Amino acid sequence: MLPSSPSPLTILVIDDQSASRVAVVAELDRAGHRALEADSAAWGLELFKRYRPDLVLLDVEMPAHDGYWTARQIRAAEPGGWTPIIFLSQRDQDQDVWRGIEAGGDDYLVKPVSPMILHAKLRAMQRLLGMRQRLVQLSDELRSANAQLHELSNADALTGLMNRRALDERLHQCIAQARRDGLPLTLVLCDVDYFKRYNDSLGHVEGDACLKRVAALLREACRRPSDCVGRYGGEEFALILPNTPRSGAMTYARALIRTMALAGIPHPDSDIAPHITVSGGITTCVADASTTAEGLLLRADDALYNAKAHGRNRFFSYEMQMDTLEQRQPASARPLDK
Ligand SMILES: Nc1nc2c(ncn2[C@@H]2O[C@H](COP(=O)(O)OP(=O)(O)OP(=O)(O)O)[C@@H](O)[C@H]2O)c(=O)[nH]1
């Protein structure tokens, strides 16, 4: 009797000659494997697709379709997969072996098959299968580790929002998309008011907790799937709002101011409100070839500076400032409603 294998395999035996098939199946049974039998290429292929065996023992000479054809069909039926195929044949010429390997086979046995050789080949294939499984598992682990790494390198450690690197990348993508679609794109830079005083009054740990809360509120404010928010640095956040015109941006800004007021995060040392407030700079463009991420950031920053200079707890639109200047109305930029 053959020595038993480390773990039993499901083996598909495809052979039109019942005597040799039965003999092989008997050997497999003796070694503790589970055998599936097919007496034709077509039926063998069907069983292969249905049961996905661990290994195939495949006769070369069969009527209708031969073993080479069957091997090619098996390979085509498992893209990216690999099931060992061992050819069984009475032919023992070098070119027969070569043809078998070329057709997608992994080994070649001459009939009548010696039980000991059969068992040794199965062991070798089993070892290869194990190594392949380990390789597949390792590459899966590597893929998920890479995905995790990518996520970590794009996330801000304190708030979990996108970090500046990821924001810059997203802004470039959004500009390209807006250019293709011919739709308006809005960028908002948002800064917590009197945050230094908040830290000075309550300490850095409370300051961190406050930034986390503000981040969560801003994240909630991103209702559309295409809207996104990230931490631009320190107590400054950036919101990218695709397909958002100037009027939409203003509505959005008012909602943000209301959100902060409703949240009512106490600020013990603010000149403008008993709670945390934010100021913001908005820029809206219909992107063309001259639109750049750097240009948008400069505009939003300019508007933010003016919002701060005009009292905080407000949002300024860069484009509205420009319109105001052009119309020779008061030189100062016009704030959006609180
Ligand atoms: N707790 C905490 N504080 C931070 C963090 N990043 C930046 N800060 C603080 O944020 C404060 C920002 O101060 P300023 O730039 O003077 O601005 P501000 O006090 O908010 O004043 P305005 O912006 O003019 O309203 C500084 O004291 C920074 O140390 C952080 O991750 N955690």
Please provide a written account of the structure.
By secondary structure, this protein is an alpha/beta fold. It contains eleven helices and ten strands. The chain has helices at residues 18-30, 41-51, 67-77, 94-102, 115-154, 164-181, 195-202, 204-221, 246-263, 293-309, 318-326; strands spanning 10-14, 34-38, 55-59, 85-89, 107-110, 184-192, 228-233, 236-242, 278-286, 315-317. It has a five-stranded parallel beta sheet with strand order 2-1-3-4-5, with helices on both faces. Strands 7-8-6-9-10 form a five-stranded mixed beta sheet, with helices on both faces. α1 (18-30) links the parallel β1 (10-14) and β2 (34-38). It starts with 9 loop residues before the first strand and ends in a 12-residue tail after the last helix. Guanosine-5'-triphosphate binds at residues 158, 191-197, 199, 204, 207-208, 211, 234-235, 308, 312.
Record the SSE blueprint:
Layout: E1 10-14, H1 18-30, E2 34-38, H2 41-51, E3 55-59, H3 67-77, E4 85-89, H4 94-102, E5 107-110, H5 115-154, H6 164-181, E6 184-192, H7 195-202, H8 204-221, E7 228-233, E8 236-242, H9 246-263, E9 278-286, H10 293-309, E10 315-317, H11 318-326
Parallel strand pairs: 1-2, 1-3, 3-4, 4-5, 9-10
Antiparallel strand pairs: 6-8, 6-9, 7-8
This protein binds guanosine-5'-triphosphate (GTP).
